[in-house]
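Please check this.
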Amino acid sequence: MTTILVTGGTGTLGRLVTERLRADGHEVRVLSRHTQPYAVDLREGGTGLDAALEGVRTVVHCASSPRGGDERAARNLIAAARRAGVDHLAYISIVGVDRVPFGYYRSKLAVERQIEESGLGWSVLRATQFHDLLVTLFQALVKAPVLVIPAGVSDQPVEVAEVADRLAVLALGAPAGRVPDLGGPEVRTLESLARAYLRATGRRRAVARVPLFGKAYRAFRTGGHVTPDRAEGKVTFEEYLSRRFGQVGD
């Protein structure tokens, strides 16, 4: 069986990718900053990264941080993968990184470019936002008496397990380049998603739509981060909320 390295293998997505690959009988090494025996900070690289990649044929690159460092981490990973003779580097990106001038998106796009130019066999899958991310956002916003959301913005949340399934299949195949995007089943207004969250958690808040400014906001408003033509996810936001919090109220 193939030896596969999953970076960020303890994260929301990487953990599920690891489980699926192991369930198929593959040897999977989990690389993260704190998980032995492959505890490596990709931003620093070093001999630990070379050891983690020894004998590895495929890398699934899930490690990422909105706080920065993704481009440096990718450079270190690519250099080490070349030294190790890796055949296939599969990367998870975000729908809209080439259309929305948002800092984190620009960084993800830059990593895509590094991978494309790496000389390695590569595959890139872009997905829409995970259900979990929206809940994290709403959990922060609900702390105020009024839940304030950007006016006119929609989203297309997708179940992370479905993304993990697609990424695992991609990793086990031949390098495929940029593959079709994966979007959640519905494009919904952010207001409707926020109200669904409030119902599911039994909270009562007024929801205020506030217009923002800037190129990134305009791109979000015009749907640069959604892919209605690739709405292949099956799990709706309400289904996710019901599983996580119990029965969604009326």
Observations:
- The beta strands are 3-7, 27-31, 58-61, 88-94, 121-127, 146-150, 154-155, 177-178, 188-189, 206-210.
- The chain has one domain: 3-245.
- Residues 70-84 form the longest helix (15 residues).
